[in-house]
Structure formats: structure tokens, C-alpha cells
Amino acid sequence: MQDGDDPAVVAKVVVTAATDKKPKLRYTAGPPASRVTTARRLVPAATFDRQIRKSNHLPT
Q1: How many domains does the chain have?
Q2: What is the reported pTM?
Q3: Rg (Cα) of the chain, in Å, rounded?
Q4: CA 16, CA 13: separation in Å to the nearest integer?
Q5: For residues 9 and 55, what is the distance between their CA atoms, to the nearest angstrom?
Q6: Is 13 within the bounds of a domain?
Q7: What does the alpha-carbon distance between residue 49 and residue 40 come to, in Å, rounded to a whole number?
Q8: With helix as H, strand as E and coil as C, how does the chain read?
Q9: 58 vs 60: CA distance, rounded Å
Q10: pLDDT tens across 27-51, in order?
Q11: Domain for residue 1, yes or no?
Q12: Is residue 46 in a domain?
């Protein structure tokens, strides 16, 4: 992905998840993932799904 997160940011989160003594169900890597997590809580599900599909060039 041309506009994806820096691989080092993602790698750091993967290492953290793999070595946590009490791992969480989900980990976020980078600012875009944090914004998506926040939007998921605040935006209605149908709107959120439509936007995710649009941003990934999937049929809506």
C-alpha cells in the first residue's frame, strides 16, 4: 500500500502483542488505526461500514 503505515510502526506493535504477558484482543498500529477505532465507537455501524468499503474500493 502506497499510503500505509510505516512498517517499523506495525512491527513494533506486532512484537508488543507477541510478547505481552496479558495480551489484548486488539492492538492499534499508527494514527490511522486509532482514528478508525474511535470512529467505530462514534459512528453508526452502517455508515462506518459504508466508509470502510469506500476507502478500500469495495462495492457499497
Answers
A1: 1
A2: 0.63
A3: 14
A4: 5
A5: 21
A6: yes
A7: 9
A8: CCCCCCHHHHHHHHHHHHHCCCCCCCCCCCHHHHHHHHHHHHCCHHHHHHHHHHHCCCCC
A9: 6
A10: 999 888 888 999 999 999 999 999 9
A11: no
A12: yes
Give a yes or no: residue 60 inside a domain: no
- Contact indicator for 5, 33 with CB cutoff of 8 Å: yes
The tens digit of pLDDT for each residue in 3-20 reads 777 889 999 999 999 999
In this structure, are residues 25 and 34 in contact, taking their beta carbons and an 8 Å threshold? no
Residue 39 CA to residue 47 CA, distance in Å, equals 10
**Cβ partners under 8 Å of residue 15, min gap 6:** none
Residue 48, C-alpha cell as written in the block: 462506518
Q: Are 28 and 34 in contact (CB under 8 A)?
A: yes
Domain that holds residue 35: 7-55
DSSP letter assigned to residue 10: H
End-to-end CA distance of the chain: 21
C-alpha cell, 58: 469495495
